[in-house]
Design goal:
Blueprint: H1 2-22, H2 24-31, H3 36-46, E1 51-56, H4 59-75, E2 80-85, H5 88-95, E3 104-107, H6 113-123, E4 127-131, H7 137-145, E5 150-155, H8 162-165, H9 169-174, E6 179-182, H10 185-193, E7 199-201, H11 206-215, H12 221-227, E8 232-238, H13 240-251, E9 257-262, H14 267-276, E10 281-283, E11 295-297, H15 304-307, E12 313-316, H16 328-332, E13 337-340, H17 349-357, E14 360-363, H18 366-376, H19 379-394, H20 399-413
Parallel strand pairs: 1-2, 1-4, 2-3, 4-5, 5-6, 6-7, 8-9, 8-12, 9-11, 10-11, 12-13, 13-14
Amino acid sequence: MNWFYRLGLFVLSVLLPVAGIFSPKVRHFLKGRQSVFRELIEFRKLNSGPLAWFHVASLGEYEQARPVIAELKKTRPELKIAVSFFSPSGYDNVIKRTQPNVDFITYLPLDRKRLAVRFVEIMKPELAFFVKYDLWPQHILALNAAKIPIFLVSASFRSDHIYFRSNGFFRKILFELDYIFTQNQQSIDLLKSIGFEQAEIAGDTRFDRVMATASNPKEFPEIKKWVGDKTTIVVGSAWEEDMKILIPVINSRPDYRWIIAPHDLNPQPMKTWANSISLNSSRYSHWDKSSSVEVLFIDNIGMLSSLFQFAKVGYVGGAFGKGLHNILEPVGFGLPVIFGKMKKSEKFPEAAQSQREGCGFEVENELTLRAVFEKLEQEDFYKKSSESARIWVNSNLGAAGKIIEKVNKLMLRK
């Protein structure tokens, strides 16, 4: 199977430049990786000390890694931290701003043996972390060959993952890992079913992350003044399918303030939505603070996670389409959260758990969305839901601390 995998990656590396002629996304994917080794060599020349490497698929996994990175830096301040991304969208979001505790940000090279070995040889990490389930076999084999401890954090497995479907190459890759920290019992049970015992439940590190944000959100005095004492709804990562059911509800509640952060910052959808909304609206970049608007479109990156401080209720988009975005961001502020009915709910276990906890509400259409709003407008129901959110978050804090405490113990044995 290893040979088939390597052959597949070789063929892919040949085909990608051809595909790049026709696809801007593929061109961007390839262009970002052109200078990986040169930049890494330059970084290690200037920073030759001990280093920890974190690999994440995209922005969501990076958010899960951040509390672990912060905790590791707290206990091992001498460590340099390097983070690699597979997704250009994740890389592009993070590279724009200085990242606390992170010393180097890069792309992960294609998972070919030659590239993986070179990447590990140049980086020379003291330890390596992968997040959730974005495991790249050749890089893991290269780390193992160099006797570098490998940890998987915030692991969330399903029975349909390739590691559990058959006993072959990909399952063996799991056994190259030194230790796995899972989000839930289901993942532990799946690992035990294949004989992997070096694992424990640590929880979802995103709870640590959202609590850190909620405890110290960015300040937006002009938005705070605009919101005043008005009931405010923050819509995060809105897609067309979400806005289709939201707009009638927005039009029916002119006394509310509505903050909408679209998934896509292309101005055209925002213009289309604004034309369908009967209330006055503005894009944040064009906002005249003296004008009277009820709806504010956030047309930039970086504000959303802190905007939930102004909300009474959060709505998180994406469920009707490619996938639900992070519902834990509003929950971290003690907010009830509404989201669409998912096509693949098993990929987002936190959504089902939020409903069991009493702070998450799944809607199918405009009718069910209106019904949820009417419930949340009842004071007693709202207080109970909000308190459920706070209890849920508080009961799941500390995952990053558990992980690093165990990692440091395991490293002492090496």
